Amino acid sequence: MLDEKKFLNEFKYPNAVRKKILAMFEILNETKFDIKAVKRMLSHHPAEVVKTAMDVAFALQKIDKDGRMAEGIVNSGECFHIRQLRINGDDLKRLGLQKAQIKNALCEALALCIEDPGKNERELLLRYFIKQQKTPD
Questions:
Q1: All structural domains of the chain with their residue ranges
Q2: What is the pTM assigned to this prediction?
């Protein structure tokens, strides 16, 4: 099995190039390319890297070219990144969440919105976190 990091280090690729290539390897190792998986990829990697990796995957016959899912998701306006959420850290801070909890809460909100794009509404997300606070652990 190819050790991608070792390979890239041996050929002295610049760090920025290594980072993009490793992200592409991670994406190409995905077994599913459905819309939710692609949104998760987009939440962790730049859109251009995901698009390029999916083009490579198509060349490797892993996905249907007509899908062009990454591009479709980016153009759809659906939420795939924390910065696209209709709530932000300040909203969660006003609900009483501590600084250490805010990032986890935003990641949780993103996961909810990837699963169901209709949940990316400010009031729905705020109600969700208010309910979470009232529910004992």
A1: 4-76, 82-134
A2: 0.65
